[in-house]
């Protein structure tokens, strides 16, 4: 049978299918017809009569009939699989001790009699802290070097070392998210420095408990724990409200990042689940309150293009003579021209709706 | 069918009206960014419907699919259907706990007229997503449901 497939670009095309075909088979069919670059089957979503069709069901299960139509859209997520690298490469747990490359020693421990020369190159084993155990897919040390190389190979030469390093830094050393950034662009918000946590993560060396600083030039060698466990052990958490987050500097930094790039919220929450499961549980229990908190305006924040005043974006609107008359009639009701035009456009050129709108909001328009 | 005064207006009975809407839904609406259909083809009263809205461009909703449930009771279209988001969404007119579109906060339902259709509801909700007070609101993670 013949099916019409609509795209969100406004075009449509036809495919030949059988009622017994699975949705997955239909997606492959679309991929063949339209090309793998345009409609990779892994990213397709098919919609019919208000339902998103599941891969394992058939066309007849979904009552898709002869000469019916489907809507195809592409999901945003770019899978690692399609880039020719298995995501399991990144998912394996790092060893419990992380060796740093010889060229960049983290610490040069002094021997007991203090006669070690400053030029001694020492490989230091850093014992993992609770953060390291939780964030199993974050990389550091020699793993980091290896990951940078892997990502560069994956790009086939199109990504240079700096770009990859920058993406990793923006992704807080999460390779899977870094790949996402490399494909879709590194969000500007992710490059903003986040204030240091008020509970620094101390990493103890085997030799003498010296605190390890971040290595310059290496992205997030000691990644930042945005919400350390201690921050929710206060009374606020016990009450079961999220109010204690409002004045938390890490949360404020997160809020400004999320407001300038809302897409970052989901990965941040996933990371939070690894770092601090109890806080994530609390957020899930108070979902509405969390959304309210995160949408509160940030002090001193600048608006973006959506918030710019009308005069910054001049535009002319053409109206037909009939619409001109309608605007005239609405003006005759006693409203000023600017308000009438605003209401008329807001109501999609529907005179009746615009009249209702103007009457309902009469108080707002009176100067 | 009942004729109005002087034979000028015709009040289409509920079932005929819903059959019209069903047919229109099956033919496809506009650019495909909103669509709807019956939940259960065997329900002779045609009460439960499913809708989808594809988030509008240049908003936080872009590239997301929102699934909704619409319920047309026996007094439809005199009274509006009840509308509930199945996919989690953060909008001013949607109850954060239940996903129900609150009629008082959504003009089309608040000022319902019998000529309005489920297509109008979905189209208006899509416009609402692009309204200044909704287009930038941080959204729950994709793929989560009420």
Keywords:
heterodimer; A: 367 residues; alpha+beta; Ubiquitin-like (UB roll); Helicase, Ruva Protein, domain 3; Arc Repressor Mutant, subunit A; two-stranded antiparallel sheet; 37% helix; 8% strand; extended; B: 146 residues; Ubiquitin Conjugating Enzyme; four-stranded antiparallel beta sheet; two-stranded antiparallel ribbon; UBC (chain B); UBC core domain-containing protein (chain B)
Task: Give a description of the structure.
The complex is a heterodimer of chains A (367) and B (146). By secondary structure, chain A is an alpha+beta fold. Among the domains of chain A are: 2-74, Ubiquitin-like (UB roll) (Roll), CATH 3.10.20; 142-190, Ubiquitin-associated (UBA) domain (Helicase, Ruva Protein, domain 3); 242-295, Arc Repressor Mutant, subunit A (Orthogonal Bundle), CATH 1.10.10; 321-362, Helicase, Ruva Protein, domain 3 (Orthogonal Bundle). Chain A has 15 helices and seven strands. Chain A has a five-stranded mixed beta sheet with strand order 2-1-5-3-4, with helices on one face. A two-stranded antiparallel sheet of chain A has the order 6-7. In chain A, a hairpin with a 2-residue loop joins strand 3 (44-48) and strand 4. In chain A, helix 9 crosses helix 10, helix 12 crosses helix 13 (337-346) and helix 13 crosses helix 14 (351-360). The longest helix of chain A is centred in the middle third of the chain and has 14 residues, at 141-154. Chain A is extended and about 75 Å long. By secondary structure, chain B is α+β, with helices and mostly antiparallel strands. In chain B, the strands form two sheets. A four-stranded antiparallel beta sheet of chain B has the order 3-4-5-6. Chain B has a two-stranded antiparallel sheet with strand order 1-2. Chain B starts with a strand and ends in a 17-residue tail after the last helix. Chain B has one domain (14-130): Ubiquitin Conjugating Enzyme (Roll). At the A-B interface, strand 1, strand 3, strand 4, strand 5 and helix 9 of A face helix 1, strand 3, strand 4 and strand 5 of B. Chain A: Keywords: Cytoplasm, DNA damage, DNA repair, Nucleus, Repeat. Chain A: Residues 142-185, 321-361 form the UBA domain.
């Amino acid at each position: 049978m013949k099916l019409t497939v609509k795209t969100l670009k406004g075009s449509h095309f036809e495919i030949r299918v059988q009622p017994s075909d699975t949705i997955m088979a239909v997606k492959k069919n679309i991929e063949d017809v339209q090309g793998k670059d345009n409609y990779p089957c892994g990213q397709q979503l098919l919609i019919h009569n208000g339902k998103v069709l599941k891969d394992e069901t058939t066309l007849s299960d979904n009552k898709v009939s002869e000469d019916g139509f489907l809507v195809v859209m592409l999901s945003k997520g770019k899978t690692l699989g399609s880039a020719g690298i298995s995501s399991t490469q990144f998912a394996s747990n790092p060893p419990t001790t992380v060796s740093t490359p010889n060229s960049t020693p983290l610490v040069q421990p002094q021997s007991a009699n203090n006669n070690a020369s400053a030029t001694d190159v020492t490989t230091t084993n850093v014992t993992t802290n609770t953060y390291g155990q939780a964030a199993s897919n974050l990389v550091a040390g020699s793993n980091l070097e290896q990951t940078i190389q892997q990502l560069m190979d994956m790009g086939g030469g199109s990504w240079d070392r700096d770009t990859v390093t920058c993406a990793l830094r923006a992704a807080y050393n999460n390779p899977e998210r870094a790949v996402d950034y490399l494909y879709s662009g590194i969000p500007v918000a992710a490059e903003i420095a986040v204030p240091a946590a008020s509970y620094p993560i101390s990493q103890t060396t085997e030799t003498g408990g010296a605190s390890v600083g971040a290595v310059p030039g290496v992205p997030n060698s000691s990644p930042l724990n945005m919400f350390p466990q201690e921050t929710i052990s206060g009374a606020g958490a016990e009450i079961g409200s999220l109010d204690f987050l409002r004045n938390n500097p890490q949360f404020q930094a997160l809020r400004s990042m999320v407001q300038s790039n809302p897409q970052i919220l989901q990965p941040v929450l996933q990371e939070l689940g690894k770092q601090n499961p109890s806080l994530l549980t609390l957020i899930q229990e108070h979902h509405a309150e969390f959304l309210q908190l995160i949408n509160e305006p940030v002090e001193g924040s600048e608006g973006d293009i959506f918030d710019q005043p009308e005069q910054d974006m001049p535009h002319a609107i053409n109206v037909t003579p009939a619409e001109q008359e309608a605007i005239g009639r609405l003006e005759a009701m006693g409203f000023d021209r600017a308000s009438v035009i605003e209401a008329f456009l807001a109501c999609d050129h529907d005179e009746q709706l615009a009249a209702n709108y103007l009457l309902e909001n009469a108080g707002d328009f009176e100067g | 069918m009942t004729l109005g005064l002087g034979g000028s207006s015709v009040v289409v009975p509920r079932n005929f009206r819903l059959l019209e809407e069903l047919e229109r839904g099956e033919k496809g609406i506009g650019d495909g960014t909103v669509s709807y259909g019956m939940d259960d083809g065997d329900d002779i009263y045609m009460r439960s419907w499913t809708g989808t809205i594809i988030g509008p461009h240049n908003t936080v909703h872009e590239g997301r699919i929102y699934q909704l449930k619409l319920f047309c009771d026996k007094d439809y279209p005199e009274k509006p259907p009840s509308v509930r988001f199945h996919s989690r969404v953060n909008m001013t007119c949607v109850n954060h706990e239940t996903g129900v579109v609150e009629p008082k906060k959504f003009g089309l339902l608040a000022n319902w007229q019998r000529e309005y259709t489920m297509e109008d509801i979905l189209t208006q909700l899509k416009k609402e997503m692009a309204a200044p007070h909704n287009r930038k609101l941080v959204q729950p993670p994709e793929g989560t449901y009420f």
